[in-house]
Structure formats: structure tokens, C-alpha cells
Amino acid sequence: MSTCATASRDAAEPVAGTSATARTWLLVEQTGPWGTEALAESHLDPRIGRALEAAAENTGVRVALVRRPGRHADCHGAPARRAFLAHTAPSRSWIRTSSVTDPAALLHLDFARLGAGEHGGLWDPYAGEPLVFVCTNGKRDRCCAVLGRPLASELADSGAEAWEVTHIGGHRFSPTLFVLPYGYAYGRASAPLVKEAVASAREGRVLLDHCRGRSAWERPAQAADLAVRELIREDRADAIDIVRCASVPPPASGGKGANEAAEGPRHEDATAATPPLPTAARHEAPTWAVTVTHRDGRSWLVTVRQRADGTPTPVSCGSPLGRPARMAVLSVRPLG
Per-residue pLDDT tens for 113-159? Predict the structure, then answer.
């Protein structure tokens, strides 16, 4: 029986623009098994897990559980656990860490301030190697356990600062992971690719191969960022920023189509990732105009459309066949 990861790979489903969205991550160590909804189904007090999730809602903070690779010992009586806070916005990325003895104390964090990128001197600055978090929650999707756990163990054995993490979306792209401090996620990863991604992060760069996007941004902006990087061959992590991501309204009857209104005339440097949709589908598909800037002053208008016209694949193991939504870059047009 094919797994969702196999089906997605066979269908050559693109990974760009599929990263989990989180301007700031709160990652809390929790040993032992994880359930499908790990924050409420682990050896963390479920009341605390649910309260953390509620406190982080709509703040830009995403909460997840982490553990070291290997056997998942049931450490009910562990005196302390590691916790990380990481903000992933360009030129303002940081990681703070602490040893937490009472997870309930995390409920007193100012989630709105942390989501805005202000740590206020909380905890200790993290100054170690780039952190790698590999999704391994087999209760959520078996591909994450079957493909993710061996990768996490191999990375840890090689000396990487690797952790397992509960759920970061995109099971069908397993093994999937993200690297801090910059928050770029990767899909269909191998150990050599991750080691290269870590080496790049150590130098303030991002590896574009198999990259899903930067978690600081919503998915249309993730796709736009990667499209511009590919176009100009830019891998410095903080060289590119997103200054605007606006939904393009559907066309009025008899007016220009969303494709024409959003894109305007194509530039000689424009890139088209996919063939055009039929007219009816084009008018209904969500579309965004994303303004991307470079720190050298250049900028681009990137038109991104949500599409669901690829080969049918399951979103996760056991799911029926469907056409998962993907972010298609229609054009990249220089501004000014």
C-alpha cells in the first residue's frame, strides 16, 4: 500500500509554499509518547497543553513538543525540561532557551509580545549550532515516524543539534523538518541535505533545495520569497523580505480577469511555474499580489495563485485521494 509520502513524491507535488506558519516558535521538551493532538495527548498535563494552545492562538506563536531522538523513555519525574523560544522574521531572528521545572509557568508568557518578535530579555540567548526539528509524530501520520525518526537519529549521531518535534504540517512531504534560527522548512529531506542546510544556516544562508518556505510568512509569501531567490540566485537568509501580501479580489463581471489585473504585462525576467488555469477556475482561485524586497533596494511584485489541479494524492495516510492546494507562482515582475 502506498503511503502519502510515496504518492506525493510520485506525483512530483511541489513543496514550495507549504511550511507551517509561525513567526515565533515555543518548543517544549516532553519525553514519552505523543498522541495525535500531542499538546493534549502526551505526558504533559493535558490542561496545560490545551491552555498553551489557547494562549498562543492568533498571536503568531506556534507551540509544539520536542524530544531528543532515540528511545522515548517515560520520564514522568524529570526535574526539568528544555524549552526554546525562536522568532523567525528577517533581520530580527533570535533564539532564547531555558530549563523549565514547571510547565504551567509557560502560561505566564506574553504571547502577543513574543509573536511580535520582542523577547524583553526573557531566558538566555542560545548561541549553539543551528537547531534541527524533524517531525516524527507517528500518531499523526505514520510517514512522519517511518521516515522522520531514522533521519532524526542519524542527524543526532552525526553531532547535529537535532530534535524530534510533534506536528509541523505536510505529512506527505516526510521526512519534513525546520531549521532555526531562520525558520526555513524542508520536505523529502535526507541526512546529507539537512547537513548542508545546517551548514548554510551557520553562515547566515538558506539552502533552496527541497525548501518549503520560511515560517515567518503565510504560504503565498513563502512561495514568493523562494521564487525571487531562485530567480536572482540569492541565498543570504536576511537579504529578502516580504513587505506586502494582499489578496486579489475576483474580477467583476465583464472586467479583467484576476490573472490580468494582478499581473499586468509580463517582464522579460518573469517566471511561470505552471500553465494557466481554465478561465472559470482562474476567476475563482484565490490569488495574491506579494511585494518582495531585497536589502539592496530592488523589489518585485509576485503573483501567486492557489491551485488544486495536480495529480490526485492523499493529504495524509489513510485519507481519500484529493488534490491538495498548492501555491503556484504565476509571475515575478520587477518594480521601479
Answer: 999 999 999 999 999 999 999 999 888 788 888 889 999 999 999 99
Q: What is the pLDDT of residues 222-252, one digit of tens each?
A: 999 999 999 999 999 999 999 999 999 887 6
| Integer Cα distance of 102 and 134 in angstroms | 25
Could you tell me the pTM of the whole model?
Answer: 0.88
Calculate the CA 207 to chain-centre distance: 14
HEC states along the chain?
A: CCCHHHHHHHCCCCCCCCCCCCCEEEEEECCCCCCCCCCCCCCCCHHHHHHHHHHHCCCCEEEEEEECCCCCCCCCCCCCEEEEEEECCCCCCEEEEEEECCHHHHHHCCHHHHHCCCCCCCCEECCCCCEEEEECCCCCCHHHHHHHHHHHHHHHHCCCEEEEECCCCCHHHCCCEEEECCCEEECCCCHHHHHHHHHHHHCCECCCCCEEEECCCCHHHHHHHHHHHHHHCCCECCCEEEEEEEEECCCCCCCCCHHHHHHCCCCCCCCCCCCCCCHHHHHHCCEEEEEEEECCCCEEEEEEEEECCCCCEECCCCCCEECCCEEEEEEEEEEC
